[in-house]
Amino acid sequence: MTDSRVVDFVLSQTGLALFSLLLTVFCYFGAKRLYKYHRVWWLAPIVLAPIVITLLVFNLKIPLPTYFEYTHWLMAMLAPATIAFALPIYRERNLIRQYPLTIGLGVTAGLFLGMISSWLLVKFVPLPVELSKSLLVRSVSTPFAMEATSAFGGVPELTAMMVLITGVIGMLVCEPLFKFMRIRTSLGKGVALGASAHGAGAAKATEIGQQEGVIASLTMIFIGIAMVLGAPVFALIFI
C-alpha cells in the first residue's frame, strides 16, 4: 500500500472508526497500567480513560457515529460478561450463608434508595425526558443498568454515562463518609460501596481489603439481578 493510500485509508470513515477502537483500548490499558504504579484517584481507568478519550475525539473532530462504529462492540461485550458474575456468587456462597440478613438488607436498601434518590432528582430538577428516564437505574452496574433501562424508556448509552458518574462520585467520597459515619467493619464498607457505587465501588472496596471487595461485588451483583428482574414493576411505580 502506497503512502497516499495509507493516508486516504486513515482519513476515511472506516480508518477513523478503526483508529477510534484502538485509541479506546490503548487509553484504557494505559490508564490501568499507570494506576497500578500510582494509586491516585484521578489515574483510575474509570476516571482517566473517558476524559482522555473525550478530549482526543473532540480535538481530532471524529464524528460520534464514526467513533461508535466499532467501539460499540466493547459495550456489547458487557452483556455476555454478566455470566461471569455467577462465579463469585458460587465461590463465596459460605459468606452469603454467614451474613444473609446484612447482605439482603444492603441489597434492598441500595436498590430502593438508589431509585428513590434518582426519582427525587428527576422530580425537582428539570431534565430532558430521555435523560430523566435513563437516570433511574444509575445505581446498578452497567450491564444490568443497560438491560433494565429499556423498561423505563431510557437510552442505554445515557444510562451507561450516568452509571459511570455515579460510580466515580461514590469512589471519591466513600472514605470521608466512612470516617464521618464511623463505619469501620469490613461488612459495612463492602455493602455500602457495592450498593451505592457498583463496579467502581467494588474496585475501591478491593483496595481497602479483600473481604470488603468480595462483599461489595456480591452486593453489586444481587442489586443488578434484582433490578433487571423487577424493572417492569419498578417502571410502573416510578414513571
UniProtKB/TrEMBL annotation:
<feature type="transmembrane region" description="Helical">
    <location>
        <begin position="158"/>
        <end position="178"/>
    </location>
</feature>
<feature type="transmembrane region" description="Helical">
    <location>
        <begin position="214"/>
        <end position="238"/>
    </location>
</feature>
<feature type="transmembrane region" description="Helical">
    <location>
        <begin position="102"/>
        <end position="122"/>
    </location>
</feature>
<protein>
    <submittedName>
        <fullName>LrgB family protein</fullName>
    </submittedName>
</protein>
<dbReference type="InterPro" id="IPR007300">
    <property type="entry name" value="CidB/LrgB"/>
</dbReference>
<feature type="transmembrane region" description="Helical">
    <location>
        <begin position="40"/>
        <end position="58"/>
    </location>
</feature>
<feature type="transmembrane region" description="Helical">
    <location>
        <begin position="6"/>
        <end position="28"/>
    </location>
</feature>
<keyword id="KW-0472">Membrane</keyword>
<dbReference type="GO" id="GO:0016020">
    <property type="term" value="C:membrane"/>
</dbReference>
<dbReference type="Pfam" id="PF04172">
    <property type="entry name" value="LrgB"/>
</dbReference>
<keyword id="KW-0812">Transmembrane</keyword>
<feature type="transmembrane region" description="Helical">
    <location>
        <begin position="70"/>
        <end position="90"/>
    </location>
</feature>
<keyword id="KW-1133">Transmembrane helix</keyword>
